[in-house]
Amino acid sequence: MKIGIFEIKGWEKEYLEKALEKEVDFFKTDASSGGDYEAISVFIGSELNKEVLDKFPNLKLIATRSTGFDHIDLNYCKEKGIKVANVPTYGENTVAEHAFGLLLCLSHRIYDGYDRLREKGIYSYEGLEGFDLKGKTIGIIGTGNIGKHSIRIANGFEMNVIAYDAFPKPEIEKELNFQYKSTLEELLSESDIVSLHIPYLKETHHLINKENISKMKQGSILINTSRGAIIETDAFIEALKNGHLGGAGLDVFEEEGAMKDEMGYLLKGDNKTDLKVLLENHALIDMENVIVTPHSAFNTHEAKERILNTTIQNLKGESRNLVK
Prior knowledge:
Elements: E1 3-5, H1 10-19, E2 24-26, E3 39-42, H2 50-53, E4 61-64, H3 74-80, E5 83-85, H4 92-107, H5 110-120, E6 137-141, H6 145-156, E7 160-164, H7 173-176, E8 179-180, H8 184-190, E9 193-196, E10 220-224, H9 233-241, E11 245-250, H10 256-260, H11 262-268, H12 275-286, E12 290-292, H13 301-316
Parallel strand pairs: 1-2, 1-3, 3-4, 4-5, 6-7, 6-9, 7-8, 9-10, 10-11, 11-12
Helix pairs in contact: 1-13, 4-6
């Protein structure tokens, strides 16, 4: 089987080279170039739509090195008989830790203090008052692997934990010391902090939107380490500007792919990208009450080893991580 592995470099490439004894080609770039591969492995930067998939005439298997698979046209893969495998678990603790890192930056004004001292040379805590996590109510949206680990961390901070899930698991409420809320609106109205831990699907597109963001507590905090399009950017920006939301910690943005290559977007005239949203993403980055990171919540050595080990199993046909 001829394999093409895209968006890979450094020690990760060497790791896969040692583990895979088959004919393998490695690329630092995304998969848009195509090839005569029977199997490919990609990350989230490769948009595997019909146009790109047609450039792989012999393709039988896609092994994405991610849990999410919204960058892959599953319907077209089914039509073409292409199997798709993902990495269902690798970063439940990793992403949850990052979410709380963002939250602590906001609650204790960590970045503000660091930036003031480093950039301005001012050694003073005046104007940097934060707030305790202890005693606050955190609403966890999504109680999968990452959501469950977030609940455990929140309990460590002695927070009051509530959760919402379209498919709740009542048996874990007592075990993990939290309470499910029957509706999303109920969770939003009761939470001081809301943290998103759900996949991006048609059903979760703009789950947080202009209709329900007003239900959130005045001054509450929103954390998103899942996918950018789960939040309607227009409503989000407005809620931050008018003070309804007190702040946000973001590892993802809507239209973040275009943000990585804005010049390419402008030259190609990509009519699938919402330029208004792209500009609003930049507005978010510039807001003083918003902490942002570049989709790096997964990015620890241990998590990437887990990703690579599962990907090796997927490419060798030793796992059942098929998403369709």
